[in-house]
Amino acid sequence: MIDQYLPGTECELDCICDGEKVLIPGIFEHIEKAGVHSGDSMAVYPPQHLSPSVQETLIRYAEKICLKGKIKGIANIQFLIYEGTVYVLEVNPRASRTVPILSKVTGIPMIDLAIAVQLGKPLAEKGLPAPPELVAVKAPVFSYTKLKDVDPVLGPEMKSTGEVLGLALTFGEALEKTLLSVHDPVFEPPLEEQFVFCSVTDREKAAALPVLKTLADRGYRIAATEHTARFLAKNGVAAETVGLEDAPFSNSNP
What we know:
The chain has helices spanning about 50-70, 100-105, 110-120, 170-180, 205-215, 225-235, and strands at about 10-20, 20-35, 45, 70-80, 85-90, 135-140, 160-170, 195-200, 220-225, 240. The protein is of the alpha+beta class. The strands form 2 sheets. It has a 7-stranded antiparallel β-sheet with strand order 5-4-1-2-3-6-7, sandwiched between helices. Strands 8-9-10 form a 3-stranded parallel β-sheet.
């Protein structure tokens, strides 16, 4: 099998179709770039960076897929946005892990509606309802601290063992709630001799620079592989050069 990889923005939506109408309670925007399994990705609802035209395209594609596919019940559709073009990654004619989140945040009983449709009852409404005032952020939970010799690098295979949900009036507050529930406070004053280790590929170095500058300004010591350390030094961030075998972290405490 040969796959094409596009490093764009991934998003997904859950919908209910009765064969004639399609109800889309909401769209989730993934925070990680495409390439990470949706179950291992942080996601935010409503989308924070998707333009109205892109969201309209997502809705139009979902409606066409459901009606052409003669789906009766619930479905999850995952998309990729790359250079302004929307691509369909996969269509799953089943409930997904975002269904209980959407049901909770929007108040739309998605499973009850899907069962009613499967029993022959028509949908009363269609399209995308007005988003609620709340912002929801979903974050995965991993078990690396309990398992030895597990590679913590994320990819297309799902590795998370749970998830948490943060609700707030703003994206920043919701994101902070989820991070604090699964990690120690990153931006609290660090412990003495606390390191952040980084090894960043060339294409992502410019994007990573502001984050690493912020950590350095807050008192963290930066340890980096040779080329990353050289890039940071050129941009005013002090970093200690280490090899991967000398990196100051363990598998249980990256």
